[in-house]
Batch of 4 targets.
Target 1
Amino acid sequence: MSKKAYRKSSINVPGNQLLDLKRKLKIEAALESIRSRTMLMKTSDDFAGVVTLLFKELRKLGGELSTCRLVLCTSADHSTEQWLSLPGEGLLPRIKVSSRQDKFHRAMYAAWKAKKKYFRIEIKGKDLKRHYELMFKEPVVDVVLKKSKKQRTPLTAKQINHVAPFKQGYLLAVTAEPYEEIDLFIRFAKELERSYTRFLDLKHAEAQAREAQIETALERIRSSAMAMHSSEDILEVTRVLREQVALLGEKELESILVHIYKEDTDQFEAWYSYRHPGNAEKQIRNGKQLLSWSQTARARKDKEKYNEGSSDYCIVADYKMLKEWYEYLLEKVPEVVEVGADGKPIVPNVLHYNYSKISGGALLLITNSEASDHSKYLLRRAATVFNLAYLRFTDIQKAEAQAYEAIKQSSLDRVRADIASMRTTKDLERITPLIWNELTTLAVPFIRCGVFIMDEEEQKIHTFLSTPNGKAIAAFHSSYQDTAILAEAVSYWRLHQRYVTNWKDQDFKSQADTLLRQGSITSREQYLHAIPIEGVHLHFLPFQQGMLYVGNTSALNDEQLDLIQAIADAFSTAYARYEDFNKLEIAKQQVDKALVELKQAQQQLIQSEKMASLGEMTAGIAHEIQNPLNFVNNFSEVNKELLSEMEEAIRKGDLEDALALAKTVVDNQEKINYHGKRADGIVKGMLQHSRSSSGQKELTDMNVLCDEYLRLAYHGYRAKDKSFNAKFETDFDLSLPKINVVPQDIGRVILNLINNAFYAVNEKEGLKVPGYNPHVIVSTKNLGDKIEIRVKDNGNGIPDSIKKKIFQPFFTTKPSGQGTGLGLSLSYDIVKAHGGEIEMGSQGGKGSVFLIILALKTSEA
């Protein structure tokens, strides 16, 4: 409506109505102003301006309001957050007050819980005094209100609190007199609710945006972690971590570090990425340093808090603790410490060390004062993400260690192989290029390397050096005492200790002159090539035959020296083989000659074993052959007499008597023939046993073969020892089929086992054991597809300690000169050649049993 139209329309309006209309317009204008300000809010921080405006407009419209407050209520802990405005003060910082502070706070909080439209409570006298006393006991309230002295003591004897609840809290106004603008007060509370709702929406949107920003930063850290190709890339992840948390707007997070704890040692590793405050170029520095737990009070406190188990913790370090810590850091890692003009570290009065654990360590945030809750929250989030990076780092480290170990083993194998292939002194020229290549492969920093071979017999050092490009310098030979350093190196070598020293330019020149006089080098330049003026750190690593030498511009660390020592040890093993090569060649010729002689001796021993067994049989054969010969002789004598009687009967014409005598002669003649053939068989068997086997298999009755050799063995043993006597018996399986074997070979096996059995029982009988009777049993058994021959005795048995040796060649338990040790070995080979098995069972003091198992299928061969 235009002003002109408005004036025309208001001409006839009564005075009271006109005032009411103006009042309403002012109210609407005030509310519209608040709404506009609400809609213009861009961030949640703008809400303070809306609240200030609302309180200002309410005071303009609502009379004497001593204070106005926006009170936000929380159901969970009955707390309230109050946005306070005083006349002439504007909006003061927010304060938190418990709704349970006193009965008046409880009443106002109850009105909000009950969702009342309006609530009023009057406080006066002692209650009012008590109300403010309780309020000012809250430190935060005292700090907020200390500017307004009049608020410390009420100006009136009473005050009236007006409460207009809305969803999230209530609008509170304090007056000294009754307040009549109740409807206006309620309307402003409703408007405040709308403004606060928009504030919450902005807050939520900002939180989402902030979370997206945080997640983006964390994702960049994750991406950096996933892009790691080597363990050294972890420092780049640390840099990205520092960069991203700084981009989140938390400047205090720029000091973030990583601690990796080696819990079983006195050391921890600090990884840093930060901007040095004294660095004019503002460059970011990355690095890592090994530090000690026990050297400083701050580090000891760190370990103590870490071991307590909390995920997040803080150490507050005072000036004394920080001074010690900064002096320690200046010594260990000076680039991270800012120093003054006097060269001493600039030490702050206090620092807060905030930790958030990761696997094997913690993220560290250093602040000048207590870190904000948000910074702590971001530190925990960053720790969670960085933990994934650290786990990937440890996985990569393990993979690198495995790969490096493989490279190391491959390198050592090449050293062994190359040196082991050397055969002549000239081959030694390949030593230093070989060492040079392997040190390069293993990434050991060096500018010179070589090998010193110690010759104790001649008191000389044979030196093989390499040029920086890996080519061999001519080998030269020096006396132990040629130079002081050589003498020192020898003394360390004899103690098998590492020797580390530093040679300056003059030391190398002096050594070059010595070598030149000896004729080991042709010019000084040959030896002094590429020697730096500042000198070289010399490292001598001992091995059995000498020392491995590595020179570098800086001293090598223990890990590098251990690696060189491994090469030295591998070199030693291979070089020992080179040293022994010529001796081995001579020894090989001697061994070859000895082997020929051994084979000849073995053949002789085998033949001796055969002849020994033949000798043992001879007496038995003589006894066996005597029986048929006696029969032949006796029957020949009888036939001679019978023929004389038959001749006389014929002359007498007694034909019947002559025929009877003739028949008797014929019968006797058959017996003579039988016993003659029997003697012939015994002789043939003896001949077969004595000569080499033809290897021709024959169908053989194993019962007959066992019976024959049992009797031969017994009589042969008695022929050697007239006092020997033993019970022997057979238990033959009559269903045993003939089997295809080489009879003289299997016969030797059976004879050997039976002879051993008789030896065992005879040995035990010599011990005069009461009630002992020597007993040997030879038995056979049909097992279906196999046959079993068993030789059992009740001798002393075979001790457990030698059971595994009895089938070994030349092993014997008999006294020297009584056995060759080949009997059971040959028996084992013969049975195996027949596709069978020979087994032994024995129990100490109770005897032994030997089993020969032969397959029947051999009969098809």
Target 2
Amino acid sequence: MTSYPGGATLNGHTHIRGVAAAVLLPLCLATGMVAMPAASADTAPPDAGTPATVSVDALPTTQVNGVVWQQVTVGNVVYATGKFTSARPPGAAAGTGETPRANLLAYDIRTGQLISSFNHSLNGQGMAITASPDGSTVYVGGDFTTVDGASRPHIAAFSTATGAVKPFTSPVNGQVRALSATNGGVYAGGNFTAVGTAARSRLAAFDAAGRLLGWAPRADSLVRALVLTPSASKVVVGGQFSTLNGAAALGLGAVNTSTGAVVPWSTNTTIQDYGDKAGIVSLRADAGLVYGTGFKFNGTGNFEGTFAADPETGNLVWMEDCHGDTYDTFASSQVVYTVGHAHNCHSIGAYPQANPQAWHRAQAFTRAKTGTVGHNDQFGYTDWYGKPRPSLLDWFPTINTGTFTGQSQGAWSVTGNAQYIALGGEFTQINRANQQGLTRFAVRAAAPNKVGPMYLPGLTPSFATGPSAVTVRWQSTYDNDNEALTYRLVRDGNVAVPVSTRTVRSTFWNQPYQGYTDTGVTPGTHTYRIYAVDPLGNSTPGPTTSVTVSGTGTYRPAVRADGPMVQWPLDEAAGPSAADISGGNRPGTYSGGVTYRVASPVYAPDGVGVTFNGSNGNLRTASAAAAPAAYSTELWFRTTTVAGGRLVGFGNAATGLSSLYDRQVYMLNSGQLTFGVYSSGFNTATSPARYNDGRWHQLVATQGSAGMVLYVDGSPVATNARTTNQAITGYWRVGGDNLAAWPSRPTSNYFAGSVDEVAISTKALSAAQVR
């Protein structure tokens, strides 16, 4: 959905390019087509068979002082058109080293350098550009009426061999927005109504000399995109129209290349973007597929993103349902590159909507379909559930928001060849370095490959200590063109011999926590540092952090020997994460009112736990899972509350109050403890003694084949023979959750008091283990 100022006026400032392809125009001789070059990028994808992208390293490229609407690549030369008055060298600040270039230029895609011999002046912006299949001619369309001062109303042709302007004898009376060429001529689309004295309703065809041909299909509104199918039988047309030749075609359709008659093209029965606030923005093709992109802004449209279709039948091959307008595509042999402003790719198994909203202005997808679209999760978008989809690849250059057009966009066009990808638009920074309007990226063999993992605060390690042991915990970072990163854990600066090395996959939307227990550590103060390293050797270190290791203490090793699924020492200096030293790497998540590093006698000499505030403070497992049938929960607590509250239990909500809750131990207002499960009703066991005496107490609750047992300070204090419980998927929560309807419900759902050394097991501990 377009979400930028003036989004509904996109038709005043965007572009269309049809890829040059084979077609038999009336009076034309061409039968060949431009073959899309096969890129061979290699940035070490972690799975065999996953196509690799170009590197995310931005290469030095000539700049412009405005916007580039569209580009086309002929060999190693990129021809770019838009709205600008000058070019300047890579790295030059605006206003320095300027070379006059009026809305049209050429540069070398290998070096990024401006080609001085191609120097022409358009008196208005260029909005469409394409090349003949043999590469001999480049055609430009737009708002201009002269080239180098000579009349060329809205369309012009240039020789790539000499750079000279070619004859073009037919004046078009309005803006040309779409072009697609053969060796013998060119098709054009836009918002014009006549060519010379001949009526033409937004579509026309010309021979190589620029003479108007008889091809005259009609569109009832703006044509934005044209592409010719490989068989030379059809022109696929996209835009904001609702009819072609008077027949319904909602933004997308196809016509015969010779007669202009409408022909079936089935994707237009599925994807329908048309009207004032929606449209098909670009159409591209290779030897096997036609690619299209669309936009909508609360109007008569149903699709944002990119689709691929069979060029002859128009049958949908796949769609990427990433929310956010998409403006252009370039397809290599295995990867499809797109530009736009995507902000939610959750339905295709990738990143969700962020808050605040974040834009991703260039992306890459597999050319092949790999799965199906999931359900839409954002209001205002069509649910394309079950449609075929590609996969999003790990390539995310950082592109800023430009201001030149007033539409708050970044890249508008993408082109390339076998070695390079080039973007054009109105951005002023790439990867946070100044660069205006144009940029390039290369395959691994031609790239510097210097962009490494991002530095994030999660690379600062946190610790849980035991006798001669340290559990180190950290959060993964991410890399903008590598999914698999290697993490090296270094103790005491010994980089040559890390204590742990592991490779973990992560993305900007998924950075899993990691942990490692370093055993046999000499008591005393030690330092630890995390290094995140990409497959090309770029290393990003976290800060060096100190921890003191003791040689005493027995409680934690005894608990760990019982094999808990989680063991949380609760000795963090701050939240939101609680380290797990069980070896299972299941961190906890704090929320609400929690006070950290509260003195505790349970595990000397560390001696700290946490205090919950009794109103919303709690700790939970980080991810949802099915509750086990047999289990044990154990912790230490201290309180003087007279409002009760739940100490530990299982619920289906990560935050707030659960609607399903079971396997819980809660304190009554009196200070007694109740252990309860729900199975054919409430089944509880309550201690006769009260424990809100301000002293530390050990609590263990077990349920298994022998029923339910509640232990306090190592001794059983209450039992119930019930062996079954409620099947729930959710979270273990410590410190509070819903107690509605439970027997002797206390005043508070949340526990006000201190807690230390929490462990949860998927078995019922024996009395000997509890002692």
Target 3
Amino acid sequence: MYVLKFGGTSVGTVASIRSLKPILKKRAKDGPLIVVVSAMAGITNQLLEAISLAEKGNDEYQLILKSIEEQHIQTIRELIDENGQSDILEKITKLLDELKSTLGGVLSLREATTNSKKLISSFGERMSSLIIYNYLKSHFSAVSLIDPVKIITCRIEQDQTYVQMEVSRKNAGKLKLTQLNVIPGFIAGDESGKVVTLGRGGSDYSAALFANFFDAKMLEIWSDVDGLMTADPRLVSNAKVIEELSYEEALELSHFGAKVIYPPSIQPAMVKKIPIQILNTFSPEKPGTRVTRGFRDQSLIRGISSMQDISLLNLKGSGMIGIPKFSYRLFQSLSENHINVILITQASSEHTICVGIESRDQKKAEKVINRTFSNEIETGQLEPVKVDGDLGIVALVGSSMKNQVGISGQMFSALGRNGISIKAIAQGSSERNISVVIEKEDLTKAINLLHESFFEHEIRRINLFMVGAGNVGKELLKQVKKQQAYLLKEHHLDVRVIALANSKKMIFEEETEGINLSEWEDKLKEGATYSIDSFIDKMDQINLRNSIFLDVTASGEIAEKYPSILKKSISIATPNKVAATASHSEFLNLKQLERKFKAQFLFETNVCAGLPVISTLRDLVKSGDRIHKIQAVLSGTLNFLFNNYDGTEKFVAIVRRAKEEGYSEPDPRLDLSGEDVKRKILILARESGYAMEMDDVSGESFVPETCMNAKNIEGFFSELGKQESHFKELLQKAKESTCKIRYVATLENGKAKTELQFVKSNHPFYNLEGSDNIVLFYTDRYSNQPLVVKGAGAGAEVTASGIFADIMRISAANQS
């Protein structure tokens, strides 16, 4: 004996009803079948809407009835042979007349009683079962249509329906089953024989009851999905089918929103140890999900379930402490008013108790609780109930969790790193479920995070939001594009650029694989008008996990937004020096924010482009070493100039070449003034532990003031050309002393300075080539022989590679 239940989508069209035949033919080989069917998809909701309209005196409910009538009659004409249509059309018409009459009574009274609501909502199953029965009659030798009102007997208490199992089982025992037995789901009868309904998931429950009554070999739930999933596939694109799980795990998942199967339908099967198979009517070859009693699996987590539209009710006060029956009164008052409690948590001090309910019951629950405890509230023993709405629940489910430490820690760590605040936590003593209440707007982000953490060990997604598409930005996008396939294959990182902006336009692509990096320039031209505020607002609205903000500009306006970005637990990687060289108090604030909100603020490329200078310095300090002195050539631009200027070509021509080749800032005066070097040594001083400001860094300029005071860049170049003799004099002085010119930054004894120096051939700075930078760290450990970091310190390619390295550091930290 098999019991098969077909949901609304499985019987929603002529084509789907026809697809039942091969499924049933195959199962019928093993013996008699009980086939429980739902109403055609959407019909029950239409009936409930019709009731609502009729209660309001709105006769537009008749339009709904007309639509229902047309849908069923059209299905009959397409599905049933002409010779058999008259009988079924007569019976359907009779049911429709009864439905119209009942709704007419509701319209007249402007009220629908509980009994009339149940009767009206039963018509969908009554009509669909009648149609399916008549269709199957012509394809099977013996088919019967069973009225569940005469079998499933219920008692009604305070409008709640309770199945009388023994009475119903005796009724079922009197049935004479045929080869195929069609039964409308969702419907039962009360003790007087009136139609009642079995509530949410009622057709599943009907099927489970008949499986129980007849000790079925298997209960099959057929719908339009491949089985129970590791998470809601509408929210998690990588959700996977769970091949097998226990009854208890299925109960936990179904309780928290896995609508493929409903909690009441599991219990009758579980009592008789009847396996449940969840299958897809439209892909019957797929194995689906099997629910059994004895299943054991090594997987720590079987699935992630979720619910939207949750509210928390918080009751607190000294009047709760040590008072017997307090919780009893609370839950009794909610129960008597048909308010379902989803989650409970209470402080060990007994000073507070918190319950989660569906948001639709929020106002009613608030009134009920305040009324129940009105005396305690009036005397100040309790505070009025506090309601927190717009929430959701995420639950980890798995029987093996109780044998493994660290599951909760892994869950909370993943949520915390991405700025998701937990409002309440609940875990049962069985340890099969850890549930957290969070903001509803964070629900999708949280589910994807947890699914990635527990089910997608091989693939982690990194989402990049990038502002700045100049030379460095273009190079960074080129490097990301080149490395995407490698990172996915070798390091299991799915790096996507979700948003991109320049000073005029911005584009977002969160729904697909991210921005196509082969055509981003054309797309950006067609983008929306850019502003940093609208960019950040959109980034916040998308609310993706593992998000990184990339500021590839020199903008002070963007740097001012860093605190608000870090507060969203979004990490920042940038070559922009503005934030790191702002006031020391602002710099410390950014450091505090990254710690508080579990984000990172990385600016390795602020000093020496792609060289690991700041990271090396941080490692020294963190490991307990003390910095005594830093001596460095920190400007790749200036080193490029001095290495290429030999008097055969004017100094101004070398500067122009540096700008054209991307070695200098857009305005070369920033480099030649020494300001850029001052910023860099300031950053190194702060990372060494010194509370310094820009004014604390002394500096000597080697460029005449007339050049630096020019009104614009072209004026600067013009004046620079006039000062060629000044630079030839510096060059001659270096040659006479057999030295090379270097612009050197020094930090020693808490003081920082920058200056032009002439270095001898025995100095580490003498043999620097091209745009190379070099940093010497003198510390407790490296006192006689300094730790040296040396390499290319300017150029779009190396700067981009440094930003890319920061992205990888953030990714690695988020994984730990």
Target 4
Amino acid sequence: PRPGPAAAPRDVLVVGGGPAGLAAALAAGRSGARVMLADEQNELGGTLLSGHDTIDGQPAADWIAATIAELGAMENVRIKTRTTVTGYFDHNFLIAAERVTDHYGPKATPADLPRQRLWRIRAKRVVLATGSLERPLLFSHNDVPGVMLAGAVRSYVNRFGATPGKRAVIVTNNGSAYRTALDLADAGVDIAAVVDLRKTADGPLADAVREKGIDIRVNSAVVKTHGVHRVKAVDVQELDDSGTALAWQPERIDCDLVCMSGGWSPAVHLFSQSRGKLDFNEDLACFVPGEPFAAAQSAGAANGVFGLSAGLADGYAAGEGALKALGLKPKGKAPAFKTDEGDEGTLRTLWIVPSNDGDAHGRKHFLDHQNDVTAADVGLAAREGYISVEHVKRYTTLGMGTDQGKTSNVPGLAILAEVLDKPIPEVGTTTFRPPYTPVTFGTIAGRDVGFLADPARRTPMHQWHVDQGAVFEDVGQWKRPFYFPKPGETMHQAVDRECLATRESIGIMDATTLGKIDVQGPDASKFLNMVYTNAWSKLEVGKCRYGLMLHEDGMIFDDGVTSRLGENRFLMTTTSGNAAPVMAWLEEWLQTEWPEWQVYLTSVTEQWATMTLAGPNARRLLEEVGSDCDFSNDAFPYMGWREAKIAGVPARIFRISFTGEMSFEINVPASFGMAVWQALMTAGQKYAITPFGTEAMHVLRAEKGYIIIGQETDGSVTAQDLGMGWALSKQKDYLGRRGMLRSDLQREERKQLVGLLTENPKDVLPEGGQLVFEPRPKPPMAMVGHVTSSYWSACLGHSVAMAVVKGGHTRKGETIWCPLPSGKVVKATITDTVFYDPEGTRLHG
């Protein structure tokens, strides 16, 4: 199986397939830019699909078809419908959820079940043509079934051929709802009245409504609905200049459908996610995009540009603007986009329609229809002291459902502003966070089926290992070579050969999987002093140091070698399986306990390919492979690092060892990993260079008594238990120091790390085997410890093992037994943990 795809690169991403989005895609696509057009609907066209507009003298549907055909013929344009761009992140990285299948029913097969695909998009420029959202009007009992947004009714009638009622009342504070009145009348619905909050209703749309004999009530409002399970009638009342209902008895109009429109709010969610600033437009009574933070621009209704001809022109201009920002030249002259739209006129803002039933506080004026939040709830929140818009949201649950404030956000802010007697911009908006619409966890995480359950990570040299017949083991999510068998070899034979080759000449191992964290900042050494048990302030640039990391309870968490790259920069290495937990642990302390420290952490594990050369001929090979570095002991001592070139590739070389042999860890940019590996293999043939895997590495390190976190430790082991008190500073504080002072951790009879040599050299103790001082023919026996590591050492001709034994540090030279399930009891002697080259002669060269 192949690894997951990287983010798809695009010159221009156009979000939204309405008129402005199509125009922007045309402008960018015609000039040859790589364009992706994404829209959440199953067909492109946006609001054009819900009306009878014309563009350039042809029906909008024909213009849409011609535009899609032109875009589809461009190889540089990719169109994605049923795809919701749901998150806008740093550096113009966006995610989109595509609905691939959508089949339900009792006869659905597993292949028919709903599936979604997650697109990860890296765009140089983004055009946000996400349209706008119609707002409700707040009149008494506006939550009765049959009260609908006028734009939604228009879509039902024109796009889906359904009439939501037989007799309708249109109530609006703007001209867009007049289109709904005309379309309903054409569909055979009786229009009882158009109730317009504005003082006048002039222009082509109003004239067309009057020509159909429809009554228009200006300077009036629906103040209340009647009906329980369905709207049956509305009360209409004339307003005075201030927007207050006049005192006389309202007129009751029978109807089963109320189409309301309280104006339109640009869908600025993605723009806000990109950290763009919003401005409040008083004329439109809505927030519009202001100064962008990312490489993005808004277009059409999303930019506060309403009207078809203006939206098309704005979209095309946005597409051309994206090209110019990329240094590309727009092609041809921008089209005129002639339309037949009528003037919708101005907007009259009346956030709460007065009531004729004594509901002065708006207890039945529903603001958020999903959460049943009323205007009165917002007023109560303010009186209770919740004056921050974020607090009001949480106190009332306003905008907290799947709608996420799309229809209720602006009216809610306006009502809060009135209660607080503040301008709406001063009240501000709630935070627009991803996702724009709900996305399943499965879409983001992927299907946990087969190899997808735990994605495999591969090093740059992985294919070479495969070609050499390596057997792999999983370490964390990494695929690491376990051993390299030759034809006819068993695992033990292969491991013995790899170990002996490393001890006698030279071995090479892929160590890319080691965790690597770049630590930078003026407080970097201060930070390392706290997370490691030993001191770091005086470590010289060019030097390396072993570090031990503890949890707060004093138990060993991780270890590794950290190198000083500069005065305020270090490179920390961690165990392969612990790289992510260590990174999270360090970030937790920086963000919660020491936020004032100037320390910056970057995981660079995948940035570097790492190969370890170990053995007496390691230095000779590096000197011959074509390097500009002096590898002598004087110039390059143990626990030092140097920048150099290996086979012409810039590298960081660290003289550290996990085998007990003279070793060099070579780090090169990941893209050069395979080339440098092959160069070393070719140059090393004269030394019979041998690749070795993790099992040989475990044998080699066990011969030297080096621990492995998670093998010699299990979350209940301290540094003193391992005989590593030398790594604990007595001069400074560090994480876990107080935890180690607990009396239980000072007991002499704690399990402590020791070495074991079996009486019969060929007996290899099982890892995890229990140990006793007094063996008996049958259980029970008092268990005093267990084997942590055990191997056959071809170099020593003897099995070696490490174990934790009660009071083990004072019992060296004593005999211990390991009862086996077969009934056999293996006798062993407790020894020091170092079995090979205890003086370190070979290590230092």
